[in-house]
Amino acid sequence: MNVSIRHLRAFVAISELKSFTLAARRLHVTQSALSLLIRDLERELKVRLMDRGPRGISLTAAGIDFLPPATKVIEDLESAVSGAAQLRDRRRGIVRVSCTPLYASTFVPEVVAGFRARFPNIDIRLLDTLNEEVLRRILIGEADLGVAPQRPTPPEIEETRLFADRIDVVCPRHHELAKQKFVTWKKVLSYPFISLTRDFTARLQTDLSAKSSSLVISPVHEVSYLATAFGLVKIGEGITAQPLAAKPMLASFGLVSVPTVQPIIHRNISLFTRRGHTLSPAAEGFRDFAVANAAKSVM
Questions:
Q1: Cβ within 8 Å of residue 64, ≥6 positions away
Q2: Fewest beta carbons less than 10 Å away: which of 28, 118, 242, 291?
Q3: Are 48 and 36 in a shared domain?
Q4: Are residues 127 and 206 in the same domain?
Q5: Residue 226 · residue 249 · CB < 8 Å
């Protein structure tokens, strides 16, 4: 059946205005074009919808029955078009961000606050998760984008570098390392070391081995969450090393950070998306905003 939205608009306008002249004016078409649309519609439906008489236009019984669903189709279309325009203009939408716990509590909330100040009706949903899970949640469609330390990525993932974050040693406030302006990694590894996840340990070991084969990490504890590591350091189970972004969290645990040298190690923090997947306008806007504001995050 070749019934188009133009046919329905013509029928509804005439039904409401009871006049071909007024309906043609509303729809910006000629009366002859409007008459043709009604004839086509009646031919397609195989039923007469309206009569034209001395007193004007009147709907037939079929026309009266057809008017409500025709009106609803037009209203639903207009609502869909309006909704799409709101999405396009970022007046509404949902953005799901997969993020490691550290940056879910530091960098990303700052981006969220700035973005929502410009687009208050966009819903930002933070999915804080372990490092290893960030990319998986993007690949399976749970997240639109992710923020995490740089890592090897599968071909399906596209990476955009945001900023570099320096790795410092973290120890109790009263620890002897806390008195130093900086400390070497050789000195750091002479103490019991608490590490976060195998992924963190493996990448840190790679960086250290590039400097010296004698710099070997042998963790006394390997934990999943930053708060757990800091809790263990607080009670004297060892020391740890974390990005500078974690510094605001240290005071509540009675800890301090000291710059590490020989080598100085940085972590590139990146934004990840699914390659070949078109982001929604809201997610695309959030991505661009995060990249533009990453330069302000001096870690």
A1: none
A2: 28
A3: yes
A4: no
A5: yes
- pLDDT per position as a tens digit, 73-127: 887 777 667 666 655 655 667 889 999 988 988 899 999 999 988 888 888 999 9
51 and 119 belong to one structural domain? no
> What pTM was computed for the model?
0.68
CATH number at residue 194: 3.40.190.290
Same domain, 105 and 245: no
Residues 159 and 272 placed together within one structural domain of the fold: yes
Spatial contact of 63 and 50, defined as CB atoms under 8 Å apart:
yes
